[in-house]
Fold this sequence. Notes:
Blueprint: E1 40-42, H1 48-60, E2 64-66, E3 75-76, E4 92-93, H2 99-102, H3 105-118, E5 129-132, H4 136-148, E6 155-159, E7 169-171, E8 183-187, E9 194-195, E10 198-211, E11 214-226, H5 242-245, H6 249-252, H7 260-263, E12 264-266, H8 267-273, H9 280-312, E13 320-321, E14 323-331, E15 337-343, E16 351-357, E17 360-365, H10 367-391, E18 411-413, H11 415-425, H12 441-448
Parallel strand pairs: 1-2, 1-3, 3-4, 4-13
Antiparallel strand pairs: 5-8, 6-7, 6-8, 9-10, 10-11, 10-14, 11-12, 11-18, 14-15, 16-17
Helix pairs in contact: 1-10, 3-9, 9-11
Amino acid sequence: MAMSFCSGRFGFLYFHDSHYLTRHYLSLDLSCRRCYRKIRVNTARAGPYSVKLVSQCARELDMEVVPRVKPDCDLYWHRRDYLAQEVPHGAYVSSTPGIKEVFSKSVLASLLNRMQWIFPAEYQFYPRSWKFPEERRELDTYIKRKTELGDSPTFILKPSYGSLGVNIFLFKDLNDVVYSESAVVQEYVSNPLLVEGVKFDLRLYVLIASYNPLEVYITSTGLTRFCTVPYEAPTVHNLNNDYMHLTNYAINKENSSYSLDTGKRTVADTLDMLSEDYDAGTFWVDVKDVVAKTLIAVLPALHIESRSYILERQLQGPLCCFQLLGFDLMLDEDYKLHLLEVNSNPSQAMVYEKTISPGVEETLSSDIDFEIKKQFMSDCLKIIGRKILKHGGDVAVDTSYSVVPLNYPDLMLLEHCRKLFFSLTDGLKLNLSDFIEFTKYGLLCNYLRIA
Length: 451
């Protein structure tokens, strides 16, 4: 797998030390161009929540929204799968072939476990995990060894393609597990950092705007999701208390004590609450590192999936794909950051479902979801819109066009990720600040299938 990068591709960006992008304008030679039409965004295959959010943001950016399947659009918003038969060559699509499979919980666990084996010190942010039921024997051996040492670890099982907390459960005894479908078992982080006595996790949004050259952005804020029952260390008596151990919104909203004011907060507000003991700057350094290393582990497999997709369908490549991802992270009481999972189809819902009585819900608007997700979507459309303008065609390229100003108030460019991946793929020298030991480079190249 060969990836080439040119610093000139990033010449339009202006950086502060914090890596936040500031307002800057792209200079285009318009002397030989005319303005024919707006950028067309096709939402025919978008999900019910995505279509509303994408349409609103696109219209505010003076783009044209096309709600029907048409072959002459510039950007196609696909809910999950890349539908090649509906996309003209050169159009941008919000989905990448193979993304669902690569970011399934079991495949992601395999990829990160392999990197833990190669670089044990660098991939400790991912909890020890096993594919289930394929690695049941290895898991059983691990539990027995820990038990002999006087430890009583707790584990959490998650279906590979599950969502909304469905069929997730905790256990201590493997004999209690009766589950035959594809899943991943993780060692439970039993010492989470608590806010006001309850457990929480953090959802941060990431945009892969380009695969070659690699161009990745991450939101500078996100959502913090809280449990609704004060946390206690897991025991056989409270393992089944989902309101205590699982942070999923879909689970905790069922608790009669759930309140949107306390159930969800922005990451920025959460960091402010922790500011006396924890530096936000340290948090963002760790976040960038986790996201970058996760993508390094995943991108080779995704590259193979995409190439197979192109060859099987005899498509004209390369495909113009971009991808929105949701990274779910957790801090423990020592302020160590853990990656829980990555969602390749993060929810774009901006509503709050309030349980009135068992089986009866009232749907209300969620200001916090609207604030975070709308800004992220708007910035994503600006970035992809700029790429469409740059490629030209008969799309409007007037300098007054609203998408041209490159101002992404809530996105940061992960230059760190680009540099790391460059060194892994094309670098002749291992200049990764001791990230890689030279003796392991050959093994890494063999794994990434690039040598």
